[in-house]
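#onboarding

Welcome to the new folks! Below is a worked example of what a typical request in this channel looks like: someone posts a single protein sequence, and someone else replies with the predicted structure as tokens. Don't worry about understanding the tokens yet, we'll cover that in week two.

Example request:
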Amino acid sequence: MTDTTADPRDPRPLVGEPLALDLLNTRWAGTPVNDLLTGAEGYGIWLSSAGLAERCAADDAGLAAIRQAREAIHLAARDARERGGLGTGARAGLDEVLAHGRIRRTAGPGGAEDRVETDRPEWLAPWLAADDFLTLLGQGPQRVKQCAHEACILHFFDASQNGRRRWCRMAVCGNRAKAARHYVKARG
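Example response:
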């Protein structure tokens, strides 16, 4: 979970996951699928909820870059879930985003300081999200999960001790699944 407060304009049902998964959750279930990143205004809402509004501009160039990063992270999350690691295509997609930046280490007053530098400003948020995804993988690819409810497409990082979390939110998706099982059992 992040330490930021969601923007009150943010319509998403799940916010506050680690940056990479929060980016994936800019799409959520609906007919058609809801997508916060259809325009620069929605991108600005996501930047605000992610605590990046002061560091990144919500413009069309940034929107295109963040959508590219979202797709790369989506493919990588699927690989992590299905394979337990990243395939060639998923690695290439992440590397394409990460090629736009680097971490520069400098000597600061208290010791070493790491600073993210990107080749163009619109790549800061996408680079941070791709880097965050690699950090999550380092904590265990099996902990990067998609909600087990068949109608939900949200992602979360399973930080539970036993790694058995199944639902994005137990109060919503978990209860729906329990109610459906109860209904089938009662009718059967």
